[in-house]
Amino acid sequence: MKTQENSSKHVIIIGNGIAGVTAAITIRKLSDYCITVISGENEHFYARTALMYLYLGQLRYENIKPYEDWFWQENRIELRHAWVNRIEFEEKTLILASGETLAYDKLLLATGSQTAFYNWPGQESKGVHGFYDLEDLAKIEKATQRGGKAILVGGGLIAVELAEMLHSRNIDTTILIRDAHYWGKNLPKAEAEMVRKRLEQKGINLLFKTTLEQLEQDSEGWVCAAITNEQERIPCTFVGIATGVQPNLELVKNGSINTQKGILVDQFLETNIPEVFAAGDCAELAFAENRIEQIWYTGRIQGETAGYNICGHQVPYERGVPFNSAKFFDLEFQTYGSVNPEVNTEESSLFWQNEAGTASIRINYLKDELKTVTGFVLLNVRYRQEVCETWIREQKPLEYVMKHLKEANFDPEFHRRHEKSIQHVYKSGN
Amino acid sequence: MDFSEKTAWFSKKAALPLVLTWAGLLMALLPLFLKSYFISVLSATGFGLFTLGSIWYIYLKFRNTDSANLQHYVWFNQFSARRSAAWLLGIILTAFYIVLFWFPEYLTGLIRIFDPLSFLLRGRQADEWFLYGGLYTLAILIMGVRALLKYQSSPYHKWRTVSIMFFQLVLAFILPNVLALFKEPEFYFSYFWPLKYDYLFPVSFENLQKHPGGLTTFMLFWTVSLSFLATPILTYFFGKRWYCSWVCGCGGLAETAGDPFRQLSNKSRKAWQLEVAIIYPVLGFITLTTALLWLNSYYKGGILGSLSGGFAHTYGFFIGMIFSGVVGVGFYPLLGSRVWCRFGCPLAAYLGWLQKHFSRFRITTNGGQCISCGNCSTYCEMGIDVKWYAQQGKPIIRAACVGCGMCATVCPRGVLKLENKKPEGRYEPTSFIHAESLRIL
Ligand SMILES: Cc1cc2nc3c(=O)[nH]c(=O)nc-3n(C[C@H](O)[C@H](O)[C@H](O)COP(=O)(O)OP(=O)(O)OC[C@H]3O[C@@H](n4cnc5c(N)ncnc54)[C@H](O)[C@@H]3O)c2cc1C
Ligand code: SF4
Ligand code: SF4
User: Fold this and answer.
1) Cis peptide before B281, with omega less than 30 degrees from 0?
2) Pairing with B241, which of A53, A185, A263, B38 sits 20 to 30 Å away (CA)?
3) Chain B, nearest residue to A304 by Cα
4) pLDDT tens-place string over residues A207-228
5) Ligand 1 atom 2: residue of nearest CA
6) Given ligand 2 and candidates B245, B351, B382, which is best to mutate, with the most ligand atoms within 8 Å of its CB?
7) How many domains, chain B?
8) Between chain A and chain B, how many beta carbons pairs sit less than 8 Å apart?
9) Is the ipTM of this complex over 0.85?
10) Which CATH topology does A10-114+246-310 take?
């Protein structure tokens, strides 16, 4: 079955996250290449997205592995638990931390990202941690077992995940948020307000328009206070850094590969060096306004695209209609298409929320004659991806969408339905 | 439950209900060791205190659960994480089943406590089966309250739990006993062949016919049509769940008393292979036996002779007692809550086969939204690796799925939805994910 030409090729993938692993699986499906996946963090692929559930006692490490361990060997994907120290692109080899040299024919860089620290004085103190990998989690576990108060820096998803974790251990938590409202870039004000309320109901303190200036440490090197831009001093025993992530470029920084913020790739996810590809959190899409996409779903689609191109099928990267989801404590958040009409002057939106402020629907549309629908933002309401994406792609007018809203509903059986309420808002607005 | 709340209330508010629960339990069990009128009164009071205390405790612990915190701390808990307390509980439960099946005389003291209730319901003394039925129903009711509170954020779970509690209390406990009071045959309307395999054995028909009358005829009609008419029809429209997680008493106990242990089910491919290797032969065996017994009765004992009674007995012993009782319930804290339903129940096999091939039911995956977090698989009591399908954008259609809905409830991204839709294209995956067509079984 093996063709000579094929099986002689060796693909090495650095990084066993969603991008690297999806590429490996895609390549296995398409070819008979030898595939080696190398990762320094751990041996098996695990869901980074599920790290918080380990801390909550909701899952154990074995539960967050998306594949059973036999999967890799059965599909002839070799796993190496090792750090790669250097890549010699001319010789097509890479050198592991142990000194061992491996040769490759094609290479995929899927090294992910790392927490962005902004050189705050005192950031090296004990008890100051980002939240990205298993090592961070272990450190957070240790630091927070000391009890006391926690400060989180950053107004995004990771900050809320950390808040939920600390809340479960009864740790008093304050979040410093630079903007005037939560997750300013992505959430319209009304939704941000709903999230704020929920967090405050849970006892989380939110300080808006506040940034971190510096950290103080005690005589044993543990962090003991944070100083804000307002020169307020807040005592604490733990500081979680959640100011975002940046591509992990350590391995390629001094090489001949082109980078800016991330590893620059063309639409086939190939770098400036032929047969060297990059995908996932570490890739910067030079062909698409230098976007860096650091979420799970795009990591998967990029990994898949890289896999196709590594196997010689020329498949350009297409993200499709963007989508995302998250959960802020018990507020489920889902978006399709454009998310925030407040930053886009060509858009307007239809908005409904329930009386308790625990569920909302926002339908974004262009301010044109037809009111072409461009996106959905949902809190504690679920819509079908297939349906929303088709409407957005086919540029359906608002009227059409309002008429067919039922088809989109994905809420569980016996749940209260909301179509009537938003249709009511729509009618009263016209 | 929130840990913050836990620590805050634990010391103060929970003390009294916990004392009531434990003291009640000890008092209730006294007749096992001592006998006197006073002890009986004490024991009856103990049952009351135990019920009161445990429900109070459960209320304090679960009243504030929401859709995000309902499975917090599961793997830190002595019982639900299969630590030493779980082993101890497993041993106690198993011991109870062994005594119940083989040495019921040791339970006499406790059985007597149930006499007043037994006289009230069925006009005669309690026996060990009446005791068992009573305790079983009590467990479903108390832990049903727990399920109602714990899953208060999900209307699906609320209705399902109410349904289970109703069927256990009314159809599986009160009604059969009241039938006995009116000298009608003891009959369970919520159980039928092939779970109650003997309901379709010739001897049951003969027995029922010994009580001639409209009701008996109705019972015969009821049991035959449930097995061969209602089951395929209801399963076609709703999937196996209409029975396994809405009606059945075994399922009822698993969903309520077994809930703290649901995550212990084995999710490995090996366990799945074992499941298929056991459950279908069990169904085959029962079908074959039923057919043989009918042939036998047709030929007036010419085929099996006296063997037939012997068979029913042996099977009843191995499957009914050891499997569904000792392993099925006794091992809850060790193997999870649905071992019997998954590996041993012939009705589950029958329903599962129908669900897989002739049903509108499926669990739909919402496009490419799955983040492979593993919550769904972990909390699937049937050991189905739900995320295997979800992360590929495929619908979950598995014979084993009892439609408990837990995978959808624990999914932090709202990716899964149980639904009944037209069967065409039921297996079609989403168009959003393509990569993984590698198969596992
Ligand atoms: C706590 C948390 C929660 C998240 N939740 C969500 C969510 O809910 N939804 C969502 O869409 N996204 C979420 N994300 C983002 C998402 O997890 C990432 O976008 C995604 O995991 C990135 O995948 P990747 O394959 O690009 O890289 P990674 O998963 O980071 O994998 C990179 C791997 O490369 C290895 N590596 C790097 N350098 C080397 C080297 N020199 N030698 C050997 N190995 C190396 C590392 O060991 C690492 O394991 C979350 C992220 C975090 C941290
Ligand atoms: S797949 Fe979901 S609904 Fe089916 S048994 Fe498992 S958890 Fe319950
Ligand atoms: S379906 Fe939901 S619970 Fe299951 S792995 Fe995917 S995101 Fe997690």
Assistant:
1) no
2) A53
3) B435
4) 999 999 999 999 999 999 999 9
5) A49
6) B382
7) 2
8) 163
9) yes
10) FAD/NAD(P)-binding domain (3.50.50)
